[in-house]
Please model this.
Amino acid sequence: METRPGGAARSIISLGHLLVGAAALVVAGVLIVAGSDRRAELGGVLLPLGLLVALAAAVFTYTAIMVLRRAPEDRHGLSLSLGIVELVVGVAMVAGLVVAVQGYGAFEPWRSPLLLPSALLVALGLAGLRLEILADHQPAPHAH
Model:
């Protein structure tokens, strides 16, 4: 049982990290399959990109699993790192969303498939960072 403040939220965010890693592995798989098709015009770009995303996703997913397996008081550094990565990637996706929306001719961000994933990554990254930063400023519970 977690005794640190925000224990339930911390567990949910840790599961969110794992889901982000799994989703990144799926995206990497799609890029690899699309890039390995002989008829793929962008095969020379998609395959190496897919392999790079697969490597990054595998490291991210492994780290998320380690966060889940560790005791709640030992999760701080890794969880903070995952939150920072999610926030950075989410902000990069928001930048891609802004560029894509400019090409629509009208301001209609809901038409972009980047809207939901970028919003979720930014929200999860900010929530994780908030919990970890607040945990730094609160005294550890005393055992009686």
Observations:
- The first helix runs from residue 7 to 36.
- The two ends are 16 Å apart (CA to CA).
- The helical segments are 7-36, 43-69, 76-102, 115-136.
- The chain is about 75% helix and 0% strand.
